[in-house]
Design brief:
alpha+beta; Alpha-Beta Plaits; about 110 residues; 3 helices
């Protein structure tokens, strides 16, 4: 099992909570952190400066495609940032918990 963290940003707390809840309920992520941030970026030829919410979902590499699909399904941006980072190391019991809580099982 390879643990990963998947990051995205949203324009509102409500959207961030909806995506985070869906990922955990669908067992695609063991947990998701939500943090308010300020983003400066280029969009359609102009520099933008917006308040956003960063989501950091802990899951496994095997679940990445499903996590990405769920984020795209629920996201309001035309081009949402969805990136994954390998977790190079960590407390083994925690990483085992991530794997056990992100199997991707269908809800009954």
């Amino acid at each position: 099992m390879t643990a990963i963290a998947v990051m995205t940003t949203t324009p509102s707390a409500d959207e961030a909570h909806a995506i985070a809840s869906s990922l955990v309920e669908r067992k695609l992520a063991a947990c998701v952190h939500i943090v308010p941030i300020e983003s400066v970026y280029s969009w359609e030829g102009e520099v933008q400066n917006d308040s956003e919410y960063r989501l950091l979902a802990k899951t496994t590499e095997a679940r990445y495609a499903d996590v990405e699909a769920a984020i795209l399904e629920l996201h309001s941006y035309d081009l949402p940032a969805v990136v994954a980072f390998h977790i190079a190391g960590g407390y083994t019991p925690y990483l085992d918990w991530v794997a056990a809580n992100a199997p991707g099982e269908a809800l009954s």
